[in-house]
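User: Sequence recovery, please. Input:
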């Protein structure tokens, strides 16, 4: 398929998704646009006159381990977490970070086997979130949304690490 045919096919799929009423195709299109703009920035600006091995991304401020920061975790299978999420920073490796995405608590039920509720400094009317242990990953620091503040976690780092360690060792 050529470039133009791919765009036509993409538009067709987006229209069908929109008509299904089961998925917000506009949200996906904005996500795709965001991802494409990141590719454009990297390949058309950062690598314009440099070799890829010489390009490093310097951030103005970085979250500390045991804080929440907002990362664009990308897209995967439809039932996986995607796009931007508050994430618990487990480990800072310099150009990469080991993170655990968090979600709001929408029901009064107990967390599942791969979830851990944590207490956070109040923000957006929330004081608790669920860490999605099964969605942990290492991401490039470029995925950090620097427009957002960092959030303090109220639970002790030791108590969290004691629970999450068996999942990752």
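Assistant: Recovered sequence (169 residues):
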């Amino acid at each position: 398929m050529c470039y133009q045919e791919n765009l036509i096919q993409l538009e067709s799929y987006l229209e069908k998704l929109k008509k299904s009423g089961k998925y917000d195709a506009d949200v996906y299109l904005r996500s795709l646009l965001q991802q494409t703009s990141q590719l454009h920035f990297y390949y058309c600006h950062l690598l314009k006159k440099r070799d890829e091995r010489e390009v490093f991304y310097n951030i103005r401020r970085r979250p500390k381990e045991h804080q929440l920061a907002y990362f664009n975790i990308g897209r995967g299978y439809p039932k996986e977490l995607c796009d931007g999420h508050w994430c618990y920073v487990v480990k800072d490796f310099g150009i990469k970070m080991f993170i655990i995405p968090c979600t709001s608590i929408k029901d009064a039920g107990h967390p599942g086997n791969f979830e851990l509720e944590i207490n956070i400094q109040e923000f957006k009317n929330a004081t608790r979130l669920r860490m999605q242990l099964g969605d942990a990953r290492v991401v490039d620091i470029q995925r950090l949304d620097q427009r957002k503040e960092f959030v303090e976690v109220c639970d002790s780092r030791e108590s969290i690490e004691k629970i999450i360690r068996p999942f990752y060792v």
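The chain has a mean pLDDT of 87.
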